[in-house]
Amino acid sequence: MAPSRRAPAGTATPSSEVDRVLTSHSLDLRAARSRVELVAEALELPFAEVESAMADPEGHSLLAFACQYGQNIDWLVLGDLSGVVRECWRRHGAAPDMRLPA
Prior knowledge:
Number of strands: 0
Structural class: mainly alpha
């Protein structure tokens, strides 16, 4: 049985989907850091937030950053925009014929 991973107090517990993203793909730290820097710049966050998000090589602090600032973890970790597009369509009501493949 694998050891249980617990999120720090005050952060969201990773869902199985997020856990899958973090563990099934090699994390390109430079690319993820670039995306975190883009978010921090857009939200006018202090640079310390970037450092904090990138502090944990397993990605849990990155997950906490994504939850805290409403970012899509697939995009931050993998650069995958399909989840971002799905969320936009969900928020704004996509036409039935405008669906992304699963």
